[in-house]
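fold-stage: in
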Amino acid sequence: MSKYKNPNYQKDYYQKNKDKIDKYSKEWYNLNRDREIKKRTEYKKENPEWHRECSRRNMVKNYKNNPEYRKKVRLNAKEKAQKRRLLIITHYSNNTMQCNCCGDKHIEFLSIDHINGGGNKHRKELFGYTCSGDRFYSWLIRNNFPEGYQILCYNCNLSRGFYGYCPHQKEKDECIC
């Protein structure tokens, strides 16, 4: 039987010569690495839908079948979200990392506030629904930290949202120091 009539010829050949083929492939790639990377990058730019679909398909496959990968993805996303949050807090607090109203410095309590109110409505306009946290922080970063925001602790932020003022500001106004 001729090698061309044998349907398993390529598989058999690869199995017999696996080390030699792998070594050659690695050497060839190392010699042509820059050209290959450029070619792949150009193809991704010309075919964004294909690239997005392949990336999504691979991620779904790995995410479903590999608990270690799933754990790694979640951890990576959490770390990135924390970095974005710290960047937002640092920027909008003018590097003080504290509440603009009461001066609370507990990072866990600090949040972003729309100075003129209407945060819920604004997020609904941006995203089609109200969202908070990382998605909004990403939007702020992408839009080069627009004005109209400040850092408040959660108590001050909620009080302003519910009552229109913060008790800390009321106390400061009443104090005749």
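fold-stage: in (second)
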Amino acid sequence: MDKGVWPARWGRPDATASGSRRSRFATLTSTVLLEPIPLGEGRVIDVRGLDSSGDVVAHGRSAPFRLEAEEPRSVELFFARVNRFSVISAALGQARYGHTATLLDDGRVVIAGGQDEQGMLSSVEIYDPATNTFSEAEPLRKPRAFHRVVRVGQSLVFVGGLGPQPLASVEVYELPSGTVRELQLSNEREGHTASLLPNGKVLVFGGRDGRGKGVEDTEIVDPKAGQVTTVARTDFKSADHVAIVLGDGRVVLAGGVKTPPGQAEDRSVIFDASAALPWSAGPDLPTALRRATVSPLGGGRFLVAGGAVGASASDQALVFDGQRFASAASRMEVAHLGHASAATSVGVMVAGGDTTQQVELFRADRFEDGGQLLGNRADFTLTTLSDGSVLAVGGRDGTAARGDAERFVPFSP
């Protein structure tokens, strides 16, 4: 057991037991007595449900908390079947897809923008895992979907997207007040990327403008100073690409489609804000993927998964080791397009998409079956929470926006 973690175990996951428990994430509350816990910061309660063989089949883990006095106190945690998704009782106030989800230091998640059947949304909601609720927050100034968001300190920087036409708008959303400052890019953008640089500025690259043409200018947003500047151009012009921020602060921009003429792009470029000449050629991709997702694997490695090759959804994935891209040792069980991915304690999770509920886990350099989402979801978000569980929010089932959420509790012995 980790230092500062105190276990509480139940004999059967479906048994009546003492403790604060979530069954399919509906609240059941009672009391459990633990051995004395030393006072201090970073205390965690770990709850496990065992089957008759002693194997863990359900798990819950509280967020770290401070214990200030030797007196009874309530600690909330989620307790559910492990390594599968469970429906949570909380629902969004507004069904949405094409939104963003941003984890905050206090464990809450900001859900912003997106669209439903009526059009683009400006609404913002905050999910609180401690209370399992979504609450309304101050809205964005402009409705937007398929935008990008970067967290810079206590600010969220929302960049471009569709509103329904491509937007040149940048909104700096201050937490916790919800006040918004608006900046303007020199170009409208959708299908672009936004990446945090070591100096607290945001690199905005690529995408398409309102005429469907590729955006040639690269821009840097300084949310603190409230300024947007343009940097030197590169001959790499792409949309629906991926952006990988390396440990030294350089940004690798790879794949996507050339705009125009819309042909697949198998090149990459590297942006280095500290260099006199910021652009350099990057490694080629063995497969030209667009609309792929990227997630860290640890050790300076990244997984680029799914998306499309040509006109078809892809079951392929690439591993980038900081120097080159290589095809993953195995393909995914199904193709994923319009999917989401997240790094978890049991591997990188790749889930859902336009035609599948399949969940796959990439670990030990291979894909494994990770079960299924409980509903059809495309253009949704996956967020790894502070307690290690994974939250899937919204998305669309066909063309219908979803207003529900699911949560996955990973466990590895």
